[in-house]
Design brief:
The protein has 8 helices and 9 strands. It is an alpha/beta fold. The chain has a single domain (about 5-245), classed as UDP-N-acetylmuramoyl-L-alanine:D-glutamate ligase (3-Layer(aba) Sandwich). It has a 9-stranded mixed beta sheet with strand order 3-2-1-4-5-6-7-8-9, with helices on both faces. α3 runs parallel beside α4 (about 120-130). One of its GO terms (cellular component) is cytosol.
Length: about 260
Amino acid sequence: MIPAVLSIAGSDSSGGAGIQADIKTITAQRLYAETVITALTAQNTLGVTAVQNATPEFVLQQIDTVFDDIRPDAVKIGMVSSAEIAHAIASGLTRVKASNIVLDPVMVATSGAALLADDAVQVLIDELLPLADIVTPNIPEAQVLSGIEITSAADMLAAAQAIQRKMNQGKWVLVKGGHLDDGANDLLLTEHGREVWLHHRRIDTPNTHGTGCTLSSAIACGLAQGFDMQAAVSKAKQYLSGALENNPNMGKGTGPLDHMWEYR
C-alpha cells in the first residue's frame, strides 16, 4: 500500500506554497497526498492580497472524514490562521490518535504578510506543540515560540531548548538558520536533547517561496516511509536543496521552487 501523508494547511492560489506545495512534495516522493484546508488565500509571488478562513467546524469535519477512510501515515500542519482553527486541529488529531505529526509554525508569508492571528500563537504553543513529533520554525518563528532573540548559533540552541520544554517528552526541534547573516546551517535538537548541526551552503537564489512548507511536508514523507527522525530530516533537506537549485524562475516576485526537479 502507498503511504499516505495528510497536509493541514492553507491554499496558495499561485501554487508555490501551502497545500499546493505540500501536494507537489508528497507526490514527488511517490506518496499519496491528502489535505485539510484551513484557509483560502489570494496570493502570488508578490504577496498575499486576501485570506478567507475555513470555519473551525469544517476543519474538524475534514479531519474526521480523512481519518475515517484513508488513514494517513504522517501529518504535516502548516498555516493555522486563527485560535479557533488551531483548537479544532488539536481536538481532531487527538481524537483520531494521529501519529508522526510535523508542525511548521507558519506565521508570516515569504512576502511578509501575516498568516497567523496574534491570539492563535498561544493556542498553537499550548495545544499543537505538545502534539507534534517535530516542530520546524525558522528564526523569526523560533523567537516567537521561545521568547528568545536569536542572533547567533548559541541563541538558536537556547531557543530550541526552550521550545522543546513546551513539547511532550521525546520530541524534536528543527530551527532553520537561513535568516542568520553568517550562514544557512540548521539545528536539529534530538528527543534526548542532543544538538545536531546540519551544515550546508547557502543557495544563491531569490526564489524561496514555499521552502518551509516543502521541507516540513518532505519530513512527513520520510516519517510515513518509516525513516527515523534524523534520517527523515536529512532526506528532506537534500530534496529541498535540489528544488532550490533547480528553481524555475517564475513570477515577478519571490518565485517558487521546482518540486519535480528530480524528474526533469
